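Case study 2.
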Amino acid sequence: MPNIAVIGAGLSGMCYGLHSKYPCVIYEQNDEPGGLCTSHMNRWGVPTDVGPHIFFSKNKQLLNFFLRFCIFEEFARKNNVLYKSKLIKYPFENYIGMLPKDERDYCVESFKAKPKLKKPAVDLEEFFLSTFGEGIYNLYLRPYNEKLWKRPLSQLSAKMANRIPKPPMQHILDAASGKYHEGFTHQAVFKYPAYGGCISMIQGLYASLPPGLEMRLTTEITKITILKSGKLKLVGSVQGERIQETYDHVVSTIPLPILINSISPTPPAEVISAASRLKALGVYVTSVHALDASHRNSFAITIPSPKVSFHRMTMIDFFGKQYMPKYGSTVLVETTYKHNSGIVDVEEVHKNVISGLHKLGIVASINVLDSATRFYKWAYPVYTLTHTDDVKLITDWLNDKNILPLGRFGSFEYMNMDRVYEQAKQATK
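Prediction:
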């Protein structure tokens, strides 16, 4: 019977452990499981996620998996775009009738005149222009996505567009006349823990892991040696003490570049080169608790404006009384960070968020009661033009060495939680 090591106790690692037919040990460098699926409590008793993490899926069986682990409530999506101080319902292209007449006409006419491609779009700019036209692209899609991804959209693969529904022409024309169609219908209704934030679901999942599964927290794996026998020796440390264990198979949920750099003997040059080309974004998550906030009945608000550094806000009041203390409102603000773009002071980001919220009229600086900013280095994989080929080359080589990468950064794919679970479960087969 093979023995298996799982590196990382995020959602992917725990789901693999839950369904594994063979004994496995999960190594996690933090003192609690969850990875990015975690929540922090502010001093007013409001939990805030890295996100937050909402639960939805076209697959009801997958959705029911998550619903086992804690009490959920159901919400109708109320997402908006803050466009020139006005809330435009999300998705932007489905509600262009809410724009001023000149901008509305610009969107409609350029949509009608959008270029017709002879072959599928290669980059994201090409996809947006050929799908939505110049108006929607210039007014919203380009400024928002360039702020989020920290690079020109011509440098991003059109593969990212797989997450974006293509609106029928009639829907755009209807929107211009004030007849609106719901977009992203699979997300129109979602579920969220009734209390405690996303971590409450993770805690329920953790408690459901089989008794025979060993979880080693505060244990960092720093090196994987491929032995001549084909087995894999893991080297790491726990509380300053060196550990060393040998396994038949390794399931890795850590970022691919980190994994490749930890392997001995050194992988082939083409694998090292592919790993060096993989790009990712970090994210600063700022929780702001204030006496009052505008737009409290919205859920998420995207912000294309270059006047502020952050790209999205989540109004925590939206989740109801369990997330609303006696005094104040909580806003969760996300600011992405491009790896290798120089040192950015957390305090500087924090100040920019507070001043930005004030500038936008969301929260007056004088009304802030409590705030904190946390940084997460690995938040979003970036679909560069070589991303697909690079990931395949690396993954093929790893699989040949009995190393299986899983999860958002193990696979280096921008996956929602339902897809993470589906992938992990399938891998155990």
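The chain has a mean pLDDT of 93.
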